[in-house]
């Protein structure tokens, strides 16, 4: 059984963009589990850098009870041109 001192933290990223939060997470020993993003190019970037992270699509269509549980949920305001 794993004790809490050795538990690996997990995270999800809302409005993920090109994966800034997942990048910071992995550099600090946190595992990015899933992300929500709708723009195709940023999704391709994160798929390239984080192939094990699930992409859940549009945040307005997420069903929280069906998402993999995580320890940390982070996100930035949606980017604007």
Write the layout of secondary structure elements.
Blueprint: E1 10-14, H1 20-26, E2 31-36, H2 40-49, E3 54-55, E4 72-75
Parallel strand pairs: 1-2, 1-4, 2-3
Molecular structure report:
The chain has 81 residues and is an alpha/beta fold. 21% of the residues lie in helices and 21% in strands. The protein has two helices and four strands. It has a four-stranded parallel beta sheet with strand order 3-2-1-4, covered by helices on one side. Helix 1 links the parallel strand 1 and strand 2. The longest helix is centred in the middle third of the chain and has 10 residues.
Question: Which descriptors would you attach to this protein?
Answer:
81 residues, alpha/beta, 4-stranded parallel β-sheet, 2 helices, 4 strands
Q: Uncertain runs with pLDDT below 50, 5 residues or more?
A: none
Evaluate the radius of gyration. 13 Å
**Residue-averaged pLDDT:** 91
The biggest beta sheet is recorded as: 4 strands, parallel
Q: TL;DR?
A:
The chain is of the alpha/beta class and 81 residues long. The chain is 21% helix and 21% strand. The protein has helices spanning 20-26, 40-49, and strands at residues 10-14, 31-36, 54-55, 72-75.
């Amino acid at each position: 059984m794993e004790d809490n001192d050795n538990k690996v933290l997990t995270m999800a990223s809302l409005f993920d963009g090109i994966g800034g939060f997942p990048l910071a997470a992995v550099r600090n020993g946190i595992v990015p589990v899933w992300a929500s993003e709708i723009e195709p190019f940023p999704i391709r970037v994160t798929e390239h850098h984080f192939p094990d992270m699930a992409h859940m699509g549009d945040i307005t269509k997420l069903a929280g009870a069906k998402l993999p549980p995580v320890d940390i949920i982070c996100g930035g305001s949606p980017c604007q041109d």
